Amino acid sequence: MQKLFQSCKEMDKRCYDEYGLSEEILMEHAAEGMADIIKSKFSKGSSILIVAGQGNNGADGVVLARLLHKEYRVKLCMPFGLFEKFSSDIAKLQYNRAVKLKIDIIDEVQEADIVVDALFGAGLNRELDSETQKIVNQMNTLDGYKIACDIPTGLNRYGIAYPVAFVADTTVTMGS
Q1: Which residues pair with 106 in a beta bridge?
Q2: Distance CA 76, CA 54 (A)
Q3: Contact 128/136 with Cβ under 8 angstroms?
Q4: In what order do the strands lie in the sheet with 73-77?
């Protein structure tokens, strides 16, 4: 993994301060980038499992579900009741939008043509707990094409598994 910048937070702050972009606009752009890749590689009607966490990376996944739900068979997986524990107001807002659109929200990992990892992003600064390790291991056993949002869950800032990591076929990063 080649490091292009020290911190996503620094880059996001620059977007807010210098370019007047909001957190919501950045989420929309992140989800649109992932949606474009999915639309270019997979036919409409393919099944998609988006595994979302409680932070902004999870919110990127929720936005992706909203963008794709009309053309694909989308399931938004929020393991261990994470939808009740969002860490930011913007994540709560994105989740409420998904609910209003009646996106299929589940709490267990299941097989799909495409598996999107939106559990943890580049801000992960601790070892994964045992429950999250179990989820990541389940995701890794699925047959679907695997896409990570920002960085595969479980990789630390040096690209080392912390202690396990999502094994992505493609990682979609945003910024710079």
Answers
A1: 77
A2: 13
A3: yes
A4: 104-106, 73-77, 47-52, 114-118, 145-149, 170-172
Q: DSSP characters for 16-85?
A: HHHH---HHHHHHHHHHHHHHHHHHHS-TT-EEEEEE-SSHHHHHHHHHHHHHTTTSEEEEE-GGGGGG-
Instruction: Tell me what the pLDDT averaged over the chain comes to.
Output: 86
Buried b (16+ CB within 10 A) or exposed e, 48-68: bbbbbbbbbbbbbbbbbbbbb
Bin 102: left if φ > 0, else alpha if -120 < ψ < 50, else beta.
left
The Cα–Cα gap between 132 and 134 comes to 5
Q: Report residue 72: phi and psi, to 5°.
A: -130, 165
Which two tokens mark 64? 């992706």
Tokens 């990063």 belong to 173
Q: What is the pLDDT of residues 9-48, one digit of tens each?
A: 555 555 445 655 567 877 898 899 999 999 999 999 999 9
